[in-house]
Structures are given as structure tokens and as C-alpha cells.
Amino acid sequence: MFGFDYRNPVRIAFGKGAIGNLGDLVPKDGPVLVTYGGGSVKANGVLAQVMAALIDRQVLEFGGIEPNPRYETLMRAVDLARREKVAFLLAVGGGSVLDGTKFVAAAIPFADGDPWRIVSENSPVQAAVPLGCVLTLPATGSEMNGYAVVSRDSTQEKLPFGSPLVYPVFSVLDPATSFSLPPRQVANGIVDTWVHVLEQYLTYPCAAPLQDRQAEAILLTLLEEGPKTLAEPRDYDARANLFWCATQALNGTISCGVPQDWSTHYIGHELTAFFGIDHAQSLAVVLPGVLRVRLAAKREKLVQYGRRVFGTDDPEAAIDRTEEFFRSLGVKTTLADYGIPADAADRVAARFAERGARLGEKEDMTPDQVRQALAQRVG
After folding, report:
1. CB of 56 within 8 A of CB of 32?
2. How far is residue 59's CA from residue 248's CA, in Å, rounded to a whole number?
3. pLDDT band at residue 8 under the 50/70/90 scheme
4. Among 308, 311, 199, which Cα is nearest to 254's?
5. What is the reported pTM?
6. Can you state the angle between helices 295-305 and 279-293, rounded to 10 degrees?
């Protein structure tokens, strides 16, 4: 599902004061549309820094992009960009803002009907407006890949798409921009990053010791730095390490040449589409159930994961320790914790059955196993 496209290597501007580089990074040939979310970038001064760096540009603004960005909202940005002949998009915020902006970039020139077809039918992206980002929340890794996920209220769907054409031209990462984040968002980012790693790591042995060790390094760093950055929100070094873990988890480095799963993400997307819970919350609910249902298929890697990350050779204990880690961050892990009814297992499984979907690294996880995985998570 995910991989690095070497035709479009992203330029990373990392560190304190990195927003000041925007004047050199953003092209000057046409209007720039700055996109953002609910207004936190105004309150914490990040948007003001961006505007100061773009003082000599023609800049338009579009705010209100939601967590789990909605198609209905994004199409308003598309209309604005088309009307004003926008030449460049700059996403300012977290992964949801960047994901939404990627869709906008692809939808602006889309000429083959409803742009929703990009995600619903995998309609090819033939062109896209170039984009960059100023990242304020470490989580999705969207700053260094060509993938995004978009939701649609009218159909209760949350679907991914990808194209090299929506790979950011550059990404600005100043960890200090995240100091004002509430603990819930920081914890969600840690969980999201953790599960990104496991989707590429917890499959089956394939003679890839370097990728395994790289994945384990990210996990071990998260174990150390995650609780630290929650306890000390203004610890720049801890927050910088969290930012870089999130980027490295999904920029294609650890996925090179190895099988990938992504079933936890696909199932989690359905929980978010139906019930509106945060993306990371859905992952924290789904992952333990998926690992237990798939324990036989994943046993060798689960044993390795347990031994190298948690110091146990018991795969069941490794799953338990993972769930305990999520809960220690304040992220709950059962359907009941979020007020989701038990019949969610049947509803989600039915959706995969309707699509004829087969999930997992070998595409052998059935809708019934999806049901079993969620049935374990009732609470």
C-alpha cells in the first residue's frame, strides 16, 4: 500500500525556526492557497509565522479542514482554488489537513467526473497542483509520502488514495509548533506511528533483518520518548524525536522489499466512518483483536517483536504489552470505551463482505475474521 517514490523525493526543512525557509521554498508564480484546520494554528501563532514568511506572495486562506478530512469540505476548497487559479497549495497543520490538501491538489484539475472517483474507484490521478506543508502534529507521516485518506459523510465511507503527483514538494517540520497540542492529540500521534510500523513489520519473516531493526528502532524510541513528551510537553528534544519517528514510520524506508498488512487500518477506517472516533483510537481498538485472530500466521514475527521490543518470548504477552502501552498513553482500547455498540463487528464485516475484500499481507483475512477481531474488542 505504501512505498517511497524516488522520482519525487521530498525536501525536509527540520528544526527550530524552519518556517522561515518558506520564502525560499514556496514558488512565486501564482496564487498560493494556505489550508488549515480548526484554528489552532491561529491561536498558537503558527499561521502568523507562515504569513510573515509569505509576505511577498498572493496568499488565499481556506480553514476548517476536519480531523478525518471530509470530501464535502474539501470540495469547497477545490471550488475556491479553481476560481482563483491557485498555483500552489500549502497545508498548515497535522496529517488530516495535509491529507485533505492532497485530495484538493488532485481534484482541482480532475476532469473525469466527480473527484470522489479518485478514492472510490481508484480513478488515476493524471495531474495535481503542487503542494507543500508545515507540519504541526507528528502522526501520519503524510509529510513524506504520496498517500492520503478522505471521508465522505453522505456515504459513511473513509477511503485511501495515492499518487506520486501528490507527494509534497517540501515539508517544514519545527517540533516547537506542536508544544500547544493537547495530550490527546500527542498520544494519538504516538499510537498512529506505532501501528504504522507494525503494519509493515508484523507479517512473516522474509530475510530482511535491516528493515526489521529499523522498525524496532522506531518502536523502542517511541517507548522511551512517547511518555516523556507527554509528561514534558515543551521538551524540544523529545518532541523532535517523536516528529522524526512519525516521518520515518511511513516514508517507505522500513517497507522496502517487505510484505505489508494494513488490515488494522482498513478496519479502523470503517469504525471512524461509522462512529466518528479518532483514527488512532480506532487503531488502538482494532490492533489487539487482529493480532489475536492472526496469531498463528504472525507467530514468528510476534515472538521476535515481543523479545526485541518488550523482552518477552510469549506472543500473547507481546499483544498484551502493546495494549497496555496504548492505555498508558491515555488511549482507550475497546469498543465500549467509545460507546460503540457490539453490533459494530457485524456492520464492519458486512461492508468488507460486500466489497469482496481480502485483507492482510497474504490477502487471506476474511470478513468473518474481521468480525472475530472486533468481537474480541467489545469491552
Report:
1. no
2. 31
3. low
4. 199
5. 0.94
6. 110
